[in-house]
Amino acid sequence: MTTIITRYYATAEAAAAATTQLAEEEMRMEFVDRFEGGATEDAIMLAGVYPSAAKAYAARLAQGGSLVVVRAPFGQSYFVKDILDAHGPIESGVDYSEVYVESQPSNPQHYNKYLPVLLDSDTLIFSGSMMPAVAKDWSFSKMLGMPLLSDKPAGRAKLLSDNPTPFSSALGLPLLIDKK
Fold first, then answer.
1. How far apart are CA 56 and CA 39, in angstroms?
2. In the beta sheet, which residues pair with residue 9?
3. What parts of the chain have a pLDDT lower than 50?
4. Is 124 within 8 Å of 136 (Cβ atoms)?
5. Which of 16, 58, 14 is nearest to 39 (CA)?
């Protein structure tokens, strides 16, 4: 989970001091954005701020001041808030200056780009939460060491056999209820 923390400062110097201290405390600066007067609503939204809040911040920045947006990784939100609050932020007029969101990299391939290729070219790989890697000739029956019900292509195989409990029988498990 990521916490998007926004703080509005009266001066650019105060915002710069806050971001400098974050950098000195080894906060990854790719998670930090600073906006001055003239910043657009779209630019602020790209930093992770919700559209209604981005609109309010853009209007406020047009009058002066500076905005710091930090996408604090899990476990670092209190640390970041302490540093930002130590530099004298002022009331911005936005109700929620801390919003919790699910962590997602801006580039979905970011975490996978250094992983080695584990399977050959006959394999379809679905990444993320969709499915595990699946080979063309893979089946649950093969994985469990059971014979196939049919040699016909997928989708045309018989769904039920004469045995009403194929998995229990194949694995040698007793039935919980014996309905007769």
1. 12
2. 66
3. 104-105, 107-136, 156
4. yes
5. 58
Report strand pairing: 2-9 vs 66-72.
antiparallel
Dist CA 122 CA 136 (whole Å): 6
Length of the chain: 180
DSSP string, the chain: -EEEEEEEESSHHHHHHHHHHHHHTT--GGGEEEE-TT--HHHHHHTT--HHHHHHHHHHHTTS-EEEEEEEPTT-HHHHHHHHHTT--B--S-S-SEEEE----SSTTTTTTTSPP-S-TTEE---TTS---EETT--HHHHHTPPPS--SPTTSS-S--S-S-HHHHHHTPPPS----
Note the pTM of the prediction, 2 decimals.
0.56
Strands 32-35 and 123-124: unpaired
**What pLDDT, on the 0 to 100 scale, is given for residue 35?**
94
**pLDDT at residue 102, as a whole number:** 66
Q: Rounded to an integer, what distance in angstroms lies between the CA atom of residue 61 and that of residue 17?
A: 18
For residue 29, which of 70, 58, 79 has the smallest C-alpha distance? 70
Cα-to-chain-centroid distance, residue 97: 20
**Tokens representing residue 136 in the block:** 């063309």
Q: How far apart are CA 159 and CA 105, in angstroms?
A: 41
**Which residues on adjacent β-strands are paired with residue 123?**
135
